[in-house]
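Reminder to self: tokens first, then the designed residues, so the page reads top to bottom the way the pipeline ran.
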């Protein structure tokens, strides 16, 4: 696959087939991720890959925490999103969120159905493989840039293998549960989860398409012919 084809065909998939991910594909994707650039080549990433019983145990414990736990005990360790949304980001966020719910026939005020769809995150959207990206918490803000590159290499690399993905900040709320299952050292901070597998092409979830800005809306060309 050409690089541009891989980039243009990447999108967040939220329903996967049970078909297993071949181990050689997985290894190539991870090898590609490890080739990501990082300031001073510090390569700050740590990656955990889960399948089978380990993945199921993480799902079960998070869903149990949602049902029986106190939500205040489950908060992210770093703010991925602003505490107060403002324009133009507020509208873009709403358009994306409501777009998915509309596609699934979930009414905007149907909190139970929205929560149920949110909880699909913790079932990895049925993907056979879950990945967790972490890094040392004492590193600086620049590390978030490096980690983003690493994550994007995974998402694009997956396309090269005919696979799809969904990045998942949702797991950061339950980092304590994930940490326990992965035996993550306490100095590591969970950046996000990623679901990976073959797309269920018949699923409504996967019919949803987000809108993207035209390049003129975010690019300033100066003295460029
Ligand atoms: C780091 C990161 C975290 C994300 N977290 C979630 C998540 O928790 N749940 C989810 O359904 N989608 C999540 N997404 C997917 C975004 O909603 C998606 O990328 C965005 O709507 C743009 O759509 P596209 O990926 O199809 O281009 C995440 C994406 C990224 C990059």
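Designed residues (225 positions):
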């Amino acid at each position: 696959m050409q690089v541009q084809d891989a980039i243009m065909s990447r999108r967040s998939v939220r329903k996967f087939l049970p078909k297993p991910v071949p181990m050689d594909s997985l290894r190539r994707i991870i090898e590609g991720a490890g080739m990501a650039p990082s300031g001073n080549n510090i390569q700050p990433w740590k990656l955990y890959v889960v399948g089978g019983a380990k993945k199921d145990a993480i799902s079960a414990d998070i869903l149990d925490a949602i049902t029986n736990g106190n939500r205040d005990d489950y908060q992210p360790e770093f703010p991925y999103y602003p505490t107060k949304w403002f324009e133009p980001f507020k509208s873009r966020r709403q358009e994306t969120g409501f777009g998915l719910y509309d596609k699934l026939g979930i009414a905007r005020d149907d909190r139970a159905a929205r929560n149920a769809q949110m909880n699909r995150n913790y079932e990895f959207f049925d993907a056979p493989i879950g990945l967790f990206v972490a890094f040392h918490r004492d590193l600086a803000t620049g590390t978030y840039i490096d980690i983003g590159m690493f994550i994007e290499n995974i998402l694009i690399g997956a396309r090269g293998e005919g696979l799809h993905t969904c990045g998942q900040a949702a797991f950061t709320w339950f980092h304590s549960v994930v940490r326990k299952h992965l035996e993550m050292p306490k100095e590591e901070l969970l950046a996000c989860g990623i679901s990976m597998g073959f797309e269920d092409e018949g699923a409504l979830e996967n019919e949803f398409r987000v809108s993207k800005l035209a390049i003129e809306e975010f690019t300033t060309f100066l003295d460029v012919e």
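The chain has one domain: 3-13+24-68+77-128+138-172+187-217.
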